[in-house]
Amino acid sequence: MTFFVFDNARVFDGLNGECAEGMSVAVEGDRIREVSDRPVRLADAPRIDLAGRTLMPGLIDLHIHAYASDVDLQKVDAMGQPYRTAHAVRMLGHALDCGFTTVRDVGGGDWSLARALGDGLIRGPRFFYGGRVISMTGGHGDFRAAHVEGDPHRHAMCSCGANNSLSVIADGVDQCLAAVREQFRRGAHMIKLMASGGVVSPTDPIWLDHYREAEIRAIVDECVARRSYATAHCHTPSAIRRCVEFGVRGIEHGTLIDAETAALVAAKGAHIVPTMSIVDALAKHGRAAKLPADILSKIEEVRVHATSGLETMRTAGVKLGFGTDLVGHVYTAQAGEFLLRRDVFSPLEILRQATSTGAEILQHQGRLGCVTADAYADLIVVDGDPLKDIGLLAADGAKLPVIMRGGEMIRNQIGYRAG
After folding, report:
1. What is the mean pLDDT of the chain?
2. pLDDT tens per residue, range 398-417
3. Helices 172-185 and 213-225: crossing angle, nearest 10°?
4. Can you list the domains of the chain with their CATH numbers?
5. CA dist list (Å): 315 to 39, 212, 266, 282, 354
6. How far does Cα 319 stand from its chain's mean position?
7. Partners of 251 in the beta sheet?
8. Are the CB atoms for 261 and 241 separated by under 8 Å?
9. pTM of the prediction?
C-alpha cells in the first residue's frame, strides 16, 4: 500500500471560502487518511512540501461524451468504434492532465471504457456513465435526417438502425422501461433522457417538448428503484418544468430558463448542469465544421441566452454542477468553462460547482469533491490561489504541479523529501 504526506498545504476543502494554512494531508492507498493542522507522522512515507500552495479536491466534469469524435454528431457512427475509442483515449487523458479527476459521461460511455480506465489500460479520470441516452423517435438523440426512411424499433437495443453509439430510440412506456433496464444491465450509474429539442439534432426544433408524462415518470421510477437517478437534456422552460414536476432529479443545459422555472427547480431540490463551453465552441467553430444552416440558427438561439440563463439560475439559488459537453476536436476547451462562468459567479461558487456540488450530484458526497479523512485521494495542487484567480484552473493544467487520482500520483513537479 502506498503512502504520501503533503506538508505546508493551504487547503480548500471543496466548501469553505476560508482556506486553512499550514496543513498536512496524509494519503494511504486510495484514500485520505488524515487532515491535520500539525505535521502528520507517517514513517517512511514520501513527503511533498507544498510551501503554501493550494491543495484542493480534483475537479469534476458532469457532462462529457467520450465517444463523440466529431462536432457533427451525424458523422460519429460512420467513423467506427476504433476511431471513437481513440478519440476517447485522447480526450480523457487531456481531462486528467487539466485536473479533472472525475467525469460523468451522459451519452455513449459504457462498461468497456470504464473497465479499461479502471484496469489502467488508458489514462483518464474516475469514470461515471449513463450508457446510451434515451430518446424518442425524432428527438434530440435521433440523428437521422428527415429524408432517411426506416423503423427505429426494428433493431432495438443495438447500435444498428436508428439507434446509434450515443443514444437509443424508445417510444411508449414499455420501450422506455426496456431501454432503461438495458442501460442499467450494462452498468450505467444513472440515466439520461432527451426531454427537449437540441442544437445538433436534425429534425427537432428547440421548443419541442419530448416524451409524455407517463414515459418520463416510468423512467424516473425505474431509476429510483435502482437507487439511482434520472437527468434530462432540456433547453426550454416548459421542458425543465415538466421534468422537475415528474420527478427528474437533474437538468442538463437549462439554457433558456426563466425566473419562474428556476424558482421551481430550486424549490424541488433539483439541480442543473449548465454547459457554456459547447455553446461557445459551436458558435466559434460551427461554420467551419460546415454544420447545416438550421443547426447554426439553433446555436445562435441558445448562445444569446446562455449567460442570462446562468444569472437567472444564480438568482433563484439553483444547485449547479460543472459540465462542458464538448465534442470532436473542441474537447481541448474543457478548462475554459471556468472563464465562461466567472462573468456570473464568484471563484468560490465555481469551485464548489466543480467539486463538492458535483460529488453530491453523483451521490458521492463525502467521498469525492472534498479534502477530508476517508474521502478518495483525488487531489490537485494549484500554484496560486484559485479563490482569487479562477483562471489558474483554466490553463490546461499548467498551474497544477501535482495531480493525484485515487492515491495514484499522476503528476509531481515538486518532488519528494525524506519522511
Report:
1. 92
2. 999 999 999 999 999 999 88
3. 30
4. 3-58+370-412 (2.30.40.10), 59-361 (3.20.20.140)
5. 42, 30, 10, 27, 19
6. 15
7. 232, 272
8. yes
9. 0.94
